[in-house]
Design a protein that fits this description.
The complex is a heterodimer of chains A (482) and B (288). Chain A has 482 residues and is of the alpha/beta class. Chain A has helices spanning 3-30, 45-57, 72-88, 99-112, 128-131, 140-145, 157-160, 184-187, 190-200, 214-222, 245-257, 278-292, 307-313, 376-386, 389-397, 406-409, 412-417, 420-424, 440-455, 461-480; strands spanning 63-69, 91-97, 119-123, 170-183, 235-238, 266-267, 272-273, 317-323, 345-349, 360-369, 431-433. Chain A has two domains: 42-176 and 363-431, D-Maltodextrin-Binding Protein, domain 2 (3-Layer(aba) Sandwich); 177-362 and 435-481, Periplasmic binding protein-like II (D-Maltodextrin-Binding Protein, domain 2). Residues 21-36 of chain A have low confidence and may be disordered. Chain B has helices at residues 2-33, 53-59, 62-95, 100-112, 115-125, 132-139, 154-179, 183-192, 196-207, 209-224, 228-233, 245-255, 259-287, and strands at 36-37, 48-49. Classes of the chains: A alpha/beta (482), B mainly alpha (288).
């Protein structure tokens, strides 16, 4: 090549490359580049999300299709959906499904490759297999583009939606912890307190009960025959022992006995059960003691997340342990429940174990976007809007929703409307999310059944734990095979 | 003649195609899937051909044998009671002249309720706190029973509920059969001096035998498939006490999404149903 030609080529490159870069950048901005979507100074996240969604939807007939849980949190969201629709001009079409229906539908539709929705809310306790499904949209580009502020969310929530490859596939929608509810009219009655002090030699304090001592004493103390017909009609406590639900009762107790020295329940990396230890034996021994001594309601093996509220609300138990949203129904006076309202009901952290840090389980719901959604960006903006501090507070004010933002839990107006939230904010350092491994749902059922076998006397604690460990390891072997 | 045969085939073809598409096709698909390791939800589990391994695992799984044993017990006890109770109801109502249609309709109500609703009603009826059954027990001075929350009583509760729901079906068949027995049979027996029991065992029951085989065939197949009530009430618990075959199969296929194992279990179930059905139909045909 002649020298003249080389010089001409270099000159052409010097002119063309910057020109191409300029055109490329202009094009990117024109089609929705970063600079066009920065929040305006002082613009709130909800306003920002609505503004951009409205811009994107301009001149188009957009309908967002969503699958929502049929639980209370979606009721809260449904109340606010018209607000989104009015602000953006788009429609939101949704269907509500129970956890089990959702699990079946979502898995079948994802496997078909042609799901008919843009957004799905999914329960954390069964979410891991779905989280790893390639049918879920990788949200990282959108999170980079429109920051959702994970740092402002409750303990560990920013990690919940991360798949094994480190990408974000789900966004938190709802958060809750496993807490205790108690009969304030009993626990705070001076006569009862004095009688307890006299009998056990220490003060009755619902905020500082221990599974290994004072919780058992309180359960014994309040188990009584109130109408003097010779039969017990008030039991000290009630916990979750029905299939699946018992897994929560086990974990709530186990985390307090656990030494925080290894993964809880299962070691997902090694693919083996990790709970057959002294902590589990002690946790179960204390629980079974209460059952055997008759301090828990007799129908304990059928007590699940829904029925535990009935047991407590009807005045049959002095204490109860379950996820906080269950207690929302008794936080205000209700004609439906004999025991309800701030005069009669108190909320606190679950008991601990003498000499160990207090711990509890956290769980919740997350949302994901279908990879084949024709409007992924708008779907993301809807989730950004729903998870914004402003809408998080509005959702919480319906008293149907447990917010995800720390600022919402610190808001006096929200706390006044939701007395249960104060219990959730206790001992934050000891909040452990329900395990996010592939076989957690199976693990829960196996543990539940082992616990039922122990309660009914068919197995000892040691045999029950060994059997559960064996079954869970078999499930792991299946998942971990090459 | 050959042309006539071909015409016949053309008429049969649409129906045959339909059966192949909606019956045989999925069955063959299921059979093929049962030889694969296939999990719909856990994509980490590799999809691959495993031959008969799913069947081998099934037959060495204590859960499978527990569910099979429970199902056989459930079917044997519930269908037997339904046959006896349905017969008693029919015999009593056959004697009633006035209001027979009204009673017949009343007896059929339980059968017409959707099984999911029966399960939900069961939760209330057998609630150990507010259920009507324990309320009656209390009136009679009997101890309170935790019906479906105690492994010792959970299966019994399901049997009681099934008997409550389906005895009327047997009753309906037996009543229809009773109406069809010529009165001359009884008149002749009466002349011979036969009492109630002699008439029952020498005329009524032998004459109704085809009805019983039909009732047993339908009820056995139906009871083997029992799912809705149990799923609503116990989900197979407590401690697998009500983990019937269909519940166990559902949990494997649609809770764990282990489609390979779930299909293998369905094939085993189908084979059992086929065997029982063939046996009962043979008995029925012999009677006919």
């Amino acid at each position: 090549m002649s020298r003249k030609k080389v010089v001409l080529l270099v000159l052409a490159a010097l002119v063309l490359v910057p020109l191409m870069l300029f055109v490329g950048c202009t094009k990117q901005q024109g089609s929705g580049g970063l600079s066009g979507y920065k929040p305006k100074s002082g613009e709130a996240m909800d306003v920002y999300a609505v503004r951009i969604a409205k811009e994107l939807a301009k001149g188009k007939d957009i309908t967002l299709r969503a699958i929502l849980t049929w639980d209370a949190p979606s009721e809260a969201l449904i109340k606010l959906i018209p607000k989104w629709e009015a602000a953006t001009g788009m429609k939101v079409k949704y269907e509500k499904l129970s956890t089990l229906e959702m699990e079946t539908k979502v898995n079948l539709e994802l496997s078909s490759g042609k799901p008919e929705y843009d957004i799905v809310q999914y329960d954390k306790y069964i979410y891991k297999p779905v989280l790893e499904n390639p049918g879920l949209l990788n949200l990282d580009p959108y999170i980079k583009k429109y920051d959702i502020d994970f740092a402002g969310m409750m303990t560990g929530m920013g990690e919940w939606g991360k798949a094994d490859d480190g990408s974000n596939r789900m966004l938190p929608f709802y958060w809750c912890t496993y807490t205790m509810v108690y009969r304030k009219d009993l626990f705070e009655d001076p006569k009862e307190k004095a009688a307890f002090q006299k009998k056990y030699g220490y003060e009755l304090d619902p905020d500082n009960l221990t599974f290994d001592k004072s919780y058992k004493d309180a359960a014994e103390f309040f188990t009584r025959d109130t109408n003097k017909d010779g039969k017990t009609d008030l039991w000290g406590t009630v916990e979750l022992f029905a299939p699946y639900a018992a897994g929560d009762a086990f974990m709530g107790r186990y985390l307090n006995y656990w030494n925080n020295d290894k993964p809880y329940l299962s070691d997902a990396a090694a693919g083996k059960a990790n709970f057959n230890d002294d902590a589990a034996k002690a946790a179960l021994k204390d629980a079974l003691d209460l059952v055997k001594k008759g301090y828990m309601v007799p129908e304990i093996l059928q007590t699940d997340w829904a029925s535990i509220l009935g047991v407590f609300g009807s005045g049959r138990a002095a204490m109860a342990l379950c996820y906080t949203p269950t207690w929302v129904a008794v936080q205000s006076p209700s004609s439906e429940f004999k025991v309800s309202g701030p005069e009669k009901v108190g909320f606190t952290h679950i008991p601990g174990v003498t000499g160990k840090p207090r711990s509890t389980i956290s769980s919740g719901w997350l949302s994901f976007i279908n990879k084949n959604s024709p409007i992924p960006e708008i779907a993301y903006l809807f989730l950004l809007w729903a998870g914004s501090p402003q809408i998080d507070k509005e959702l919480a004010m319906t008293t149907l929703h447990n917010p995800v933002r720390q600022s919402t839990y610190a808001d006096p107006e929200v706390l006044a409307a939701n007395p249960t939230f104060a219990a959730e904010a206790m001992h934050k350092e000891g909040q452990y999310a329900v395990p996010d491994h592939l076989i957690y749902a199976e693990e829960q059922l196996i543990l539940s059944n082992a616990m039922a076998a122990m309660v009914s006397g068919k197995m000892s604690i040691e045999a029950g734990l060994a059997e559960a460990e064996k079954q869970i390891n078999a499930k792991w072997a299946e998942v971990k095979q090459k | 003649m050959a042309k006539k045969d071909r015409t016949w085939m053309i008429y049969v073809f649409p129906a045959l195609l339909l059966v192949l598409l909606v019956g045989i096709g999925p069955l063959l698909y299921s059979l093929v899937v049962s030889t694969f390791q296939f999990n719909l939800a856990k994509l980490q589990i590799p999809f691959r051909f495993v031959g008969l391994r799913n069947y081998a695992r099934l037959f060495t799984d204590p859960g499978f044998w527990n569910s099979l044993g429970l199902t056989l017990l459930f079917v044997a006890v519930s269908v037997s009671i339904e046959l006896v109770l349905g017969t008693i109801l029919a015999l009593v109502l056959a004697e009633v002249e006035r209001g027979r249609s009204l009673f017949r309709s009343l007896f059929l109500i339980s059968m017409m309720i959707t099984p999911i609703a029966v399960g939900l009603m069961g939760r209330f009826i057998f609630s150990d706190v507010s259920g009507i059954v324990n309320w009656m027990f209390r009136l009679l001075g009997l101890p309170r029973i935790i019906w479906y929350g105690d492994p010792r009583f959970a299966l019994t509760t399901m049997i009681i509920l099934d008997v409550w729901e389906w005895s009327s079906f047997v009753f309906l068949l037996v009543l229809a059969g009773l109406m069809g027995i010529p009165p001359e049979f009884y008149e002749a027996a009466h002349v011979e001096g036969a009492g109630f029991l002699a008439r029952l065992f020498s005329i009524t029951l032998p004459t109704l035998r085809p009805m019983y085989v039909l009732a047993a065939l339908i009820r056995v197949i139906d009871a083997f498939k029992e799912f809705d009530k149990i799923y609503i009430m116990t989900k197979g618990g407590p401690n697998f006490a009500t983990d019937l075959f269909s519940i166990h199969n559902y949990m494997i296929a649609f809770k764990e999404f282990n489609i390979g194992m779930g299909s293998a279990m369905s094939i085993v179930f189908l084979a059992m149903m086929f065997g029982i059905g063939t046996l009962l139909v043979r008995v029925l045909t012999r009677e006919a």
